[in-house]
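Reviewer 2 asked us to include a model.

Predict the structure of this chain.
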Amino acid sequence: MVTKTQSKSTVSLTGLAAALHFCVDGLCLCCLYLVTTGIQDLLKYFVVYNVLAFLTQPLTGMLADRVKQRHWILLSSIILLILAVIETVCVIPYCSAAPVFLLMLLSVLLGIGNSLFHVWGGKETAVRTGNDIRVLGVFVSTGAFGLAVGSVFLSRALMFGLLLGICILALAYLRIDTAKPIDTTEVDIESKVYPKPLVWAVLILIMLIVAGRLFTGESFSKVIDKTPMVVLLIGALTMMGKMAGGWLVKWMGMVTSIILLLVGVTICIAAKGKHIGIALAGLFMVNCTMPITLYWANVMLKGREGLAFGLLAASLIPGYLIVTLLN
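Predicted model (C-alpha cells):
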C-alpha cells in the first residue's frame, strides 16, 4: 500500500520529470537553431538530430530496462547536453567555416542526450506510479511547449537558462530519488502476462496509430498560419491535450474516451479548413490520445517500459521524414 508520504514524493518526482522534459527539448532546439541559422543545408542536421533522438530510443529504452540505478541514465544525458552547449558556445563560433563534422557532432550529442532522457523519464514515471495514465500524460506533455518556447524565444540567454534549470531540477530529483520514498515493488503495472504474438500484434497496431497521429496532427497544423503567438498557442494546446487525455480516461473510462476522441477528431478533420478554432480543437483532441497509446504499450510490455516508450518514439520517424521532405 502506498503511504501519504510516498504519494507526495511521487507527485514531486512527476513534476520534476515533466519540468525537465520542458527544459531538455527547449535546450536541444536552442542549440541547433543557434548554430545552423543562415546555413543553407541546415535541414540535414535537424534530420540527423531527430533520427538519433527518436530512432535510438528502442535501444536506449532497453538499456533503461536493464539498469537498476536509472539515475545514471539521467546523468549521462545531462553530460551529453552540457557538452553540446559547450560546443555551441565555445567551439563552433570560432571555426570560420563551421565544419560539417562539428555540426554533425552537435547533432549526435543532442540526439543521444535527448534519447537517453526520454526513455529515463518514460521508464521512471511508468514504474513509480504503476502506469498511471494521468502521470504518463503529464510527463510526455511538456516537451511540446518546450519546443515552442525554444523556437519563439531563441537566444543564448534562454539556452543557458534551460541548462541551469536542467541541472537544478536533476539535483532536486536525485535528492528525492536517493531517499527511496517509494517501494516500486508495491506499485505494480499489470499482473496479467499476454502471449507474445498478441503482444507484438498490439504493439504494431499502437505504433501504426502513433504514426497516423503524427500525420493527423500535421494536417491540422498546416491550415494554421504560424505567427510567434500562434506557435506558442499550438505548443500550449498540444501540452494540455496530452495532459488532459489521461484525466479524461480516468473520468469517463477507456472505451468511452476513445470513442469520443475518434468522433471529435473525425469531425474536426472534415471541417478543419472552415475556422482556425476547429483546427486547434482537432489538434488538442489528437494529442489527448498520447497517454492512451503509451499506457497500452506499457501494459503489453510489462517490465520493459523503456522499450515500450522507445518503440512508440521510433514509430514517429517514418512520418517525420515524409513530412519533412514534403514541406
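Confidence is low (pLDDT under 50) at residues 1-6, 181-191. The first helix runs from residue 4 to 36. We have added this to the supplementary material.
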